[in-house]
Amino acid sequence: MLAFGLAGYCSAALRAHRCFLAPAAIYVAYNTGIIAAMFLLGEGWGVRSAAVGVAAGGCLMVAVQLPSLWRRLASRTPPVARAGAQVEERPMQLALVAAVLLFALCRQSQVLAERFLASGLPAGAISHLNYAQKVAQIPMTLSLMVCTVTFPVVARALADGDTARARSRVERDLALASCLVLLGMCAVIACAPQMIELLFQRGAFTASDTAATADVMRVYALGLLGQTLVGALVRSYFSAGRASWYPLGAMAAGIAVTSWIGAATVHSWGVAGIAAANALGITVTAALLLAGLRTGRLNSPHSVSVRVRRVLAELTRLVCAAVVATAAGAFAASRLPSPASGLAAGCLTVTFVFVPLTWALGAQSPASALRFLRAVTRRLTHGRFR
Fold first, then answer.
1. Shortest CA distance to 350 belongs to which of 369, 373, 331, 375?
2. Strand partners, 294
3. Are 40 and 53 in contact (CB under 8 A)?
4. Residue 26, class by beta-carbon neighbours within 10 Å (0-12 exposed, 13-18 middle, 19+ buried)?
5. Neighbour count for residue 383 (Cβ, 10 Å)
6. N or C end of the chain, less CB within 10 A?
7. pLDDT digits (tens, 9 = 90+) for 360-378
8. Residue 358 to residue 356: CA distance in whole angstroms
9. pTM value surpassing 0.90
10. 1 DSSP assignment
């Protein structure tokens, strides 16, 4: 636990200084520690070797970031600021820390609520839910990397009082992250049986487990857009360096919806009812967070406000394209008997339908994605993207 806390602090400090390479390598080091420990100790220690690997991986996550962090701490060069800008040193606010921690705690409690509801179901239900969530969350994780990289830009703009630049950046991030997660969501829903069979169907994981997990994953994937929007929007509330309790209230409302819907559907729909409750609850939280940032509601010069109608119009175009792409991808994946070939055909079909259709519907996200990739490539080429 200590190593994980230190690794998180190091990552936050480095990202705040626009240094992303070392934080990006932490999970490579983490998985290396787990795999090495299980390979060396697995025969004698069994599952405890995985626990040892987690502890070792946590230490490796700190070690891989220490050289970069030490260079930052030892550097005599002052941080770059705008010409004439006044850099304000503010002490850490206890209220801000409490708001962030309570929001994170409330969000993680969603997992406990789901597992509690699933504990009364037949054996294997929690495993099906866990496998489905782990696979389906990959597109969400990839899409939120955009917000992780641009979070310091939003914070800097708010520190300078440039709310227009912060609003523009947040709106572009929302559109781009939504585009990426919807593309991944299309592939997950269209190719769920092929993905699960290819990844897990061996040993005690049978064809019936594949079918059950794929069904749950398709329902759970319906909430991926909400998950991504929550992860992107909450950064806007906390980027100003001031405490905001509104995200905690929005997350609590989402947890309540998840718990109520899950309790009402778990006996009739089983684990699929829990997945549906998860999707609905996180979507409610996303809607509340987006409504809380609408233009005119926040009057502080250090707050982000977004044009909700413009964001919703972009999301509507993307969702319409996603529905068509999902149907086409599912049809293509089901035509081939092999899970590998079906997965490849489904993913290619989803991509070749979703991207042109978003352009045809007038969405701006594909163009933003290309500009973002070109900017990243250019910075990597010139050594400025650290």
1. 331
2. 306
3. no
4. buried
5. 7
6. N
7. 877 666 655 556 555 555 5
8. 5
9. no
10. -
Confidence check: pLDDT of 83 > 50? no
* 282: pLDDT strictly greater than 80: yes
Q: What is the DSSP letter of 297?
A: T
Name the residue with tokens 């360096």.
Answer: 241
To which residue do tokens 């559907």 refer?
A: 265
Mean pLDDT of the 156-166 span:
70
Contact 262, 113 (CB under 8 A): yes
Convert 289-319 to b/e letters by CB count within 10 Å (16 or more is b). bbebbeeeebeeebbbbbebeebeebbebbe
Range with the poorest average pLDDT among 69-78, 267-276, 285-294, 355-364: 69-78
How do residues 252-267 score in pLDDT, each as one tens digit? 999 999 999 999 999 8
Using a 10 angstrom Cβ sphere, with 0-12 exposed, 13-18 middle and 19 or more buried, the burial of residue 208 is exposed
Q: CA separation (Å) from 156 to 15, 237, 339?
A: 13, 14, 47
Cα radius of gyration rounded to whole Å, the chain: 22
| CA–CA dist 167, 295 (Å, integer) | 9
- Higher-pLDDT residue of 141, 134: 134
Q: What is the dihedral of CA 65, 67, 69, 73, to 10 degrees?
A: 170
Could you tell me the CA-to-CA distances from 227 to 81, 133, 231, 233, 284 in Å, in that order? 34, 12, 6, 10, 10
| Alpha-carbon span 241 to 120, nearest angstrom | 43
- The pair phi, psi for residue 299, each rounded to 5°, is -105, 0
